[in-house]
Specification:
- It is built from 9 helices and 10 strands.
- By secondary structure, the chain is α/β, with parallel strands linked by helices.
- The chain has one domain: TIM Barrel, CATH 3.20.20.140.
- Strands 1, 2, 3, 4, 5, 6, 7, 8, 9 and 10 form a 10-stranded mixed beta sheet that branches.
- It starts with a strand and ends with a helix.
- The protein binds zinc ion (ZN) (2 copies).
- The site of one zinc ion (ZN) has 4 residues, from loops.
Length: 244
């Protein structure tokens, strides 16, 4: 199984690390597949406008440079770490009410996809661009300020526009995704280095781009795991063996 993290933010939106540092961090910690998924935020309300003013969103104007940096780092990631990098974005509609907010990953996108209009219009654009669409953090999360419940509440209406659902994100599991028997992934929603030790996806495929995309589109046989930091090399105290 390949170790994958498909939800990672860089300094192109609200992440703390630039893409090259992300590549080195994930490469050195044994990841086989990662996706760079910076926010593309709606502009049709005040929250979106402020987010854009703070330069926390990829835009139609910046997308080509964003995509070019991912492309460059994709080659370096493979040459240095044998790690696959998928280009993506997190299509982001933040609204005042959590039940109307929606975040969805578009994986494998080569062209800009706007987050304007209704959630359904946004998802339709992602599907027309042939992206793999992942519903992000669909249920309540423990340490995440912007819970987004639209996709979960409308899951029957939007299910044909969603390929995969996050059953795990950052530190939390979402049992309701399992109970609904939806196809799932687990991701860290990485924004800063301590998020490296979090939920991940396990992909049942060979390590090449075509097989990774096929496994995600199939959506069956995937696993999730939560990475823990490697224990320090300090030897166990003798007392730990004495009781055996
Ligand atoms: Zn999100
Ligand atoms: Zn995110």
């Amino acid at each position: 199984m390949l170790l994958a993290d498909l939800h990672i933010h860089s300094t192109w939106s609200d992440g703390k690390l630039p893409i090259p540092e992300i590549i080195d961090l994930f490469g050195r910690t044994g990841h086989d597949v990662i996706a760079i998924t910076d926010h593309i935020v709606n502009t049709d309300n005040l929250i979106g406008k402020v987010t854009h003013r703070m330069k926390l969103s990829v835009t139609a104007a910046s997308f080509a440079a964003y995509r070019a940096e991912i492309e460059h780092e994709t080659r370096r990631a493979w040459d240095t770490y044998r790690m696959i990098v998928i280009p993506g974005a997190e299509l982001t509609q933040n609204r005042v009410l959590r039940k109307t907010s929606a975040h969805a990953l578009a994986l494998g996108m080569d062209e800009f996809i706007s987050a304007e209009g209704s959630v359904e219009e946004m998802l339709t654009r992602a599907k027309e661009a042939d992206a793999i669409v992942v519903a992000c953090h669909p249920n309540e999360q423990s340490d995440y300020f912007a819970n987004t419940f639209y996709l979960w509440n409308q899951r029957e209406q939007v299910s044909d526009m969603i390929d995969l659902w996050e059953i795990a994100c950052r530190w939390d599991l979402f049992p309701r995704v399992g109970k609904a028997r939806l196809p799932y992934v687990g991701n860290s929603d990485f924004h800063q280095p301590q998020h490296i030790w979090a939920w991940k996806t396990l992909l049942p495929c060979e390590k090449n781009v075509a097989d990774v995309y096929a496994a995600l589109r199939r959506g069956t046989g995937l696993g999730v795991t939560r990475l823990e930091p490697r224990p320090t090399a300090a030897p166990l105290p003798v007392a730990a063996f004495a009781a055996v």
